[in-house]
Sequence to fold (228 residues):
Amino acid sequence: MMGDYFTLAGYKVLSFDKISSTQDYAHDMVINGTARNRMAIVAAAQYAGRGRYRRKWVSHHGNLYVSFIFDAPERDSRMAYAIAVAIVETLGQFGINAKIKWPNDILIDGAKVAGVLIEYASKFIIVGIGINVTTNPTVPEYKTTKLMNYTSVGLHDLFNQLHRQIDKWMTADFSLVRDAWIQYAIGINKIVRYRGESVELIGLNESGALIVRHDSEYMLIHGDEIFV
Fold:
C-alpha cells in the first residue's frame, strides 16, 4: 500500500486514506530499515487501530490518527508526560480546556477525546496519537467526546499545531513538563483508586514516577493505572 509523502517543518510525513494502524506501519518501517528520525505516519482512518494493552481504538474517518517516529538512544518514561502536555497545549490553542488522566489519556469535561500509545522499537520511539475530531466511538468502559462538540478544528491545522507542541515539550526541561502535567492532571491532591486501595495522588518525582500516599506511606507508581 502506497501513501503520499510530503515534508512539513522538518518532518517527513507519509499520509494514507486508510491503513490497519499507523503504529503498526511505523513498526514495519523500523523492521525494514526505512524508519528515520522525525517521520510521521498519518491516516484518515484505521481498520485495526490499537491503544495501550492492545485495546481496540475505533478509528473512523474525520479524526486525527498519527504515529511519530523519533530517534531514541535510550528509553525515557518521562516522554509520556511531555506528549500528554503537548496534546493539551495543542487543544488549548483552539480554545479547548482539556485535562490529563494518568498516564496520558486526554479528557474534556470528563470524557476521553484523545489517547496516546508510546512504544520503543530498535533505536526509535514511536508515539501514536489519536484525537477524536468529528466522530467519537461509543464504548462501555468510559465516556468519549469529540472536538466538534466544542469548536471547529481542521485536521491540517490540528496536525500543524500538534507537531509544534511536541517539538516544544519533548525538548523542554522535565521540571517544566512536570509542572505543566500537574497543572493539567485530574485528581492531584485527591483520593483515587490504585490496585483496589484508596490513595491520595500527590504528584510526580524527577524521574517521572507518580507519587501517591496511602495513610502515612508514600509510594511511587511506574506505569500502572489509577482510577479517578
Remarks:
- The chain has a mean pLDDT of 89.
